[in-house]
Amino acid sequence: MVSVGPSPARRSILIRRVRLFVAATVTDNVIEAVIAISAGTMASSTAVIGFGLDSVIEVAPAAVALQFSRPDRERRERAALHVIALSFSALAADVSVESPRLDLHPVPRYRLTVMGMSSDNQAWVPEACTLPSVQRPLRLAEFDDLFATALREQQRLSPTDLRWRLDSAAETTARDLTDRESSCCSFFTFTLAADAGTLRLDVQVPAAYVDVLDALAQRAAAGLTA
Questions:
Q1: DSSP run (H or E) holding 165
Q2: How do 161-167 and 198-204 pair as beta strands?
Q3: Which of 6, 161, 200, 219 could bridge across to 157 with cysteines, CB 3.0–4.6 Å?
Q4: Are 26 and 63 in contact (CB under 8 A)?
């Protein structure tokens, strides 16, 4: 009698591969969910939070694949199909709830960001910026914290030049933050120097990025008066 399907040895190999793929998928979605939900919470962004919740929902269908790597997979198929159906129903419900909220409840606080958001709340990010979208709210929060805790004075020296005076104790934080910012947004030039007991931080951009510097200056001014 001719056997249909893989041999036991081949089947064992395929089962191991399925489990590895499922483990990788679940791990990726969990990490994605943690980052997105954290970033969305910090930025009060329902869009980013919804993206994270989508990743949570996607874990269920991935885990369902494990059902078919077990000997009694036929018996488990019905339960697996129910899980898949429930997962997609949850995803559809999530999209239905979040979409209207994005249109009806904009977040004015984040109209102007370090990465350059236009005044009408539509994201505008220069092509030169390489920071992943999900990390931008986290970077913004770092600048907000620096402005709120260390910024003492702001001067606009020219359309392309901005000067901040910070507490000298914030030097390590400021150097680390500006180094990371210039690595993803190469149009920024940050120059730090000690000056009369404070830390002077000069920010320069090419003329093409004056709008981004304007947004950054307004962000800093808000932190200075907070």
A1: strand 161-167
A2: antiparallel
A3: 161
A4: yes
Tokens of 201: 């931080």
Q: What's phi and psi for 154, nearest 5 deg?
A: -130, 135
**Rounded to whole angstroms, how far apart are CA atoms 54 and 46?**
12
Parallel, antiparallel, or unpaired for β 189-195 and 161-167? unpaired
Nearest residue to 49 (alpha-carbon basis) of 35, 29, 63, 59: 35
Question: What sign for the dihedral angle of Cα 173, 179, 184, 187?
Answer: positive
Cα radius of gyration (the chain): 25
- pTM of structure: 0.48
3-state helix, strand, coil in the chain (%, to 5): 65, 15, 20
Residue 200: helix, strand or coil by DSSP? strand
φ/ψ of residue 156, rounded to 5: -100, 100
3-state secondary structure of 129: strand
Q: What is the pLDDT of residues 46-74, one digit of tens each?
A: 667 777 777 777 776 666 666 656 666 66
